Each structure stands twice: as C-alpha cells, then as structure tokens.
C-alpha cells in the first residue's frame, strides 16, 4: 500500500459553482481534521468551514471515507468547495503545506487496483467511462467497469486451470490410481474453450470500434458531390464546397452520434489520375483512409457521362453503399454503367440528392449498418489492443496444447494460455503494463 497521501482536483478545471478535491492515503484523516475540525460520520456529507494557518479558506461540504471502504481502498476524503480559481488554489496550497502531494495521472485508480478494489480491465472501464461521448460508449464502459469483461476471461482462465490440473495429475502421479482418461477429458474441455476463444477473436474489433468510433469514408471522383453529401449527413458546413475540381485536398474527419454510437465520417479528396504533387498526395490519403474504413460511401455523379466514376470503383467493397448523386438532374450514361459495376461488386446503390431526396433513406441504411456492426452480442467485447493480443496468445497456446504429442508439453501450453488470459485482468504479470494503462488517465482519477 502506498505510504504517502495524494490530492487532486476531481472535477473539471475552470470556473464553476462547485469543485471537488479528493485526497487518499494514510494522512487523509489528519488533513481533514486540520482543515475542517473533527472527522464527520463516514460517507455522510457535512458542512464545515475550512481554515488553515492564514485564516478561512471556504465553507464547504466534506466527506470522509475510511479504508478499506473507499474507492482506493485507503483512507480518503473529499472537499466540495466553491469552484473559483482562488478557492481551489488556496485549498491545494493548504494541502501541500500539510505534506500531501499532487496525484499523478490515474494514481487514484491505480491504488484502487493495487488494493484489490478493481482489476485491470475494470480500471480501463473507468477511463473509458470518463471519455465516453455516446450512449454506446458509456454502456460498454459501464459493463466493463462492472466486471462483465473480467468475468468472461476469469471463467475461461478457471477452465484452463481445471484442465491443467487434470493434465498434471497424469504427469505427477503416473503410478497412482489416476483414471487413464483424465488427459482425454481435459482436452475435450479445451476443444470447447478453443471454439469460444475463436469466436471472441472474430468479434474483437467490435469493442474497439464502439470505443474509438465506426469509420465511414466518403469516396468518389472530383465534383461528384462528396463534400456536399458530407455536410448534409453531419448537418453542418464542415467541408468547403466549390465547382472547382480538387477543392478537397486532405481528409476531413467529423465525429457524430448515430443511434447512440460514435461515428467518424471522413470527406476525402476526389480520386483521379493527376500529375500535381499536392493533389496526388490527397488522393493517396483518400485511398488509405478508405481501405481502413468500416464502410465506404461511393459517391457518383449520375448526371455525368465522362466515366469518371471508374476512378474510385476499385476502392468500393462488398457491403458498401453507392450513392448515385444529383437525383434532381437528368441521368447521364454513367448511372447505368455504375449500377452494373456496383451490383457485380456487391455494393448497394441509393439515389440521393443534397437537396434532400433520398437522404433520410440513406441515413437509415447507414444507421442499420452501424447498429448491426456494433450492437452487443453474447460476449462482452474486448476494448483494447492488449486484450486482443492476449486472446490471440491464449488461443495459439491452447491450439498447441491440443496438438502436443506428450501430456507434459500440453500442460505447459495450457499454463501459458492461462497466463495470457490473466494479463487482461492483471492477475499476473501486471507491472509491465500498469504504467501504460494508468498514464493515460486524467488527473484526479
């Protein structure tokens, strides 16, 4: 347990009606008595006049959380003071004078982890809940904080340990009365677990997309109407729209909330052959963003007849949407050719216009894609790359165990698989990743 006592502003910085300053560590009770008199009843707000050697600081609500019944598992306290800058700085100065130190990023939650109040996956749920911008992100983070992800991996780890015990029984007691089929029984359980790990790995990108945003690229030839449709979908003028081809030279990203999920819509440079260096770089970036997107909106000028739609055709993938734009104008020869190409590629065509025609149906189609891709399934989703990496290691070790020619080798592979799953919750080998996890937290959490 940490021996020093830390403090931090737990509410947002800046002028506010109320600010919360929290402290944690063995000196919390002494600091609370020094500034506010006697300790209040545990977990009950009490009105106190805070004073230091120089005089009154503020009239505030104070709360006392004796350990281990606190967020960090240590003695802790909170000061709910008026949110003016002078009051906050005065209180922080008084705490410094009492020997407390400012908390490092994520130090409160790290102490909660070290004191067994949270596991590592739950601690990451805290950070995700603080950063959540949409209902989908908040729901996922709250489930992770509540232990849904941890419980799933812990059940798997316990099954591995049970199978390991059966395998090692045959190794350690070859001359005892151990049933001869214990290794077969262990491997039967491991085969079922391998299938569940494969399913989780196949689903691993979903949680990361909920957390980071579902990526949609608007692609097409110059002057197809990409920027106009981009502005129409996000309902604001984020991209410059002109009649000059090549106006958009870089990727313009706009996050927005769609059906409770974070979506990142990107307007990209018009794709065409060009010898101009800046425009060529814009085309390269457009192609790279499109290839890594979850969905592409391929915008085509249906009123054209020059065949420019072909420039971006190779970026569209099965399941994407082809937007036949300028529905308010007479169709050119490009529409029929593009429809034929889209159908062959498994791309669904929609007739749209930036003046409103087809936009509601388009938004409904996009919403359906997002919800289908991100909505909760049977298992809680992994939310970080380190989770996915540990799952892959566990899966590979488990597969190796099932193919091992000797029981001793199978047992070692099962042990390594259990260790990989333990890294997700921090049950083992946690120290090497603690700095990376908690260093990204905000101060005061």
Concise summary:
Helix content is 47%, strand content 18%. It is α/β, with parallel strands linked by helices and 445 residues long.
Describe what you observe in this structure.
The chain folds into 3 domains: 6-103, Probable tRNA modification gtpase trme, domain 1 (Gyrase A, domain 2, 2-Layer Sandwich), CATH 3.30.1360.120; 122-203 and 382-438, tRNA modification GTPase MnmE domain 2 (Four Helix Bundle (Hemerythrin (Met), subunit A), Up-down Bundle); 212-374, P-loop containing nucleotide triphosphate hydrolases (Rossmann fold, 3-Layer(aba) Sandwich). Helix content is 47%, strand content 18%. The chain has helices at 28-36, 85-97, 107-114, 120-131, 135-145, 148-172, 182-202, 204-212, 226-234, 277-291, 333-345, 359-374, 385-403, 407-425, 431-438; strands spanning 6-9, 16-24, 46-52, 55-65, 76-83, 101-102, 214-220, 252-258, 261-267, 295-301, 321-325, 348-351. The strands form 2 sheets. A 6-stranded mixed beta sheet has the order 3-4-5-2-1-6. Strands 8-9-7-10-11-12 form a 6-stranded mixed beta sheet, with helices on both faces. A hairpin with a 6-residue loop joins strand 1 (6-9) and strand 2 (16-24). Helix 6 packs antiparallel against helix 7 (182-202) and helix 7 runs antiparallel to helix 13 (385-403). The longest helix has 25 residues, at 148-172. The model is unreliable at 429-433 (pLDDT under 50).
Topology:
Blueprint lengths: L5 E4 L6 E9 L3 H9 L9 E7 L2 E11 L10 E8 L1 H13 L3 E2 L4 H8 L5 H12 L3 H11 L2 H25 L9 H21 L1 H9 L1 E7 L5 H9 L17 E7 L2 E7 L9 H15 L3 E7 L19 E5 L7 H13 L2 E4 L7 H16 L10 H19 L3 H19 L5 H8 L7
Parallel strand pairs: 1-6, 7-9, 7-10, 10-11, 11-12
Antiparallel strand pairs: 1-2, 2-5, 3-4, 4-5, 8-9
